TrEMBL record:
Domain BPTI/Kunitz inhibitor: 64-119
GO MF entries: serine-type endopeptidase inhibitor activity
SUPFAM superfamilies referenced in this protein's UniProt entry, alphabetically: BPTI-like
Family matches, as InterPro entries: BPTI/Kunitz_domain (IPR052861), Kunitz_BPTI (IPR002223), Kunitz_BPTI_sf (IPR036880), Prtase_inh_Kunz-CS (IPR020901)
Pfam family, one: Kunitz_BPTI
Name of the protein: BPTI/Kunitz inhibitor domain-containing protein
Domain of life per record: Eukaryota
Organism the protein comes from: Cylicocyclus nassatus
Length: 236
């Protein structure tokens, strides 16, 4: 079921999984598809954008290799903080972060699309997280040592990747949350998956959950929301 929704998300940019009822056991899978969609659709989407960025010459490639600098909020008088995007060299993915408003460097883009235009993904076949391959395998998916999995490309031999590492990355991409997302929260999912919680990329009313290699946002649990609401009433 989840694979079907991921495929549909890639084919149809405006697709959203159907809302889950409170007791819907399939609901979590639908919401996991949204996070997977960000990586497979939002990150590597729009082949025309990526093709354009690969064909054109750019002087900004070096910016893509720069370490993230979130800036500060004191070195200028007109600080303009907000969610921005940067290219992560380790994973070759553009991630969101909270820009503090002043300073920083050029690895700082207004949208995910802008980030990928400036920093197109490598046209390479590699293990998740760009971790080193453990070997090669044939078209019959044979040749990997124990503890590795064979990943086939469209043509030619495949590569062997560490099974435990692949499992960790896939679990991070699933974005598991105990609290279900509401339909209105699906409309802006670009920055619900990031590199680390320290980048403060989650929207209001979301908590950040750190995974093995990535972090994702989950709706605040009902109990926490209710406590926050009761404090507001008392203060009034």
């Amino acid at each position: 079921m989840i694979r079907d929704h991921v495929r549909k998300s890639i084919a149809e940019p405006d697709f959203h999984p159907p809302p889950a009822s409170p007791n819907d056991t399939e609901g979590q899978a639908y919401h996991q598809a949204i996070c997977i969609r960000q990586v497979q659709m939002k990150s590597f989407i729009l082949s025309s954008v990526i093709l354009y960025s690969m064909l054109r010459k750019t002087d900004s490639v070096s910016d893509c290799l720069t370490t993230l600098d979130r800036g500060d909020n004191t070195s200028c008088s007109n600080a303009n903080p907000g969610i921005r995007y940067y290219h992560d060299v380790e994973t070759d993915i553009c991630f969101p972060f909270l820009y503090k408003g002043c300073g920083g460097n050029s690895n700082n883009y207004a949208t995910m699309k802008d980030c990928y235009i400036a920093c197109p993904p490598e046209v390479m076949f590699h293990c998740l997280g760009k971790t080193p391959k453990t070997g090669t395998c044939d078209r019959d998916m044979k040749g990997c040592k124990s503890g590795s999995v064979c990943l086939l490309r469209a043509f030619g031999p495949g590569i062997c990747c560490d099974m435990a590492n692949e499992a960790e990355w896939l679990e991070d991409f699933e974005c598991r949350c105990s609290e279900q997302w509401k339909e209105k929260e699906w409309n802006d999912v670009e920055h619900l998956l990031g590199k680390t919680c320290s980048h403060e990329f989650c929207p209001k009313d979301f908590d950040c959950k750190q995974g093995y290699h990535l972090a994702h946002c989950c709706p605040k649990e009902k109990k926490e929301k209710e406590e926050k609401g009761s404090k507001t009433v008392v203060n009034n």
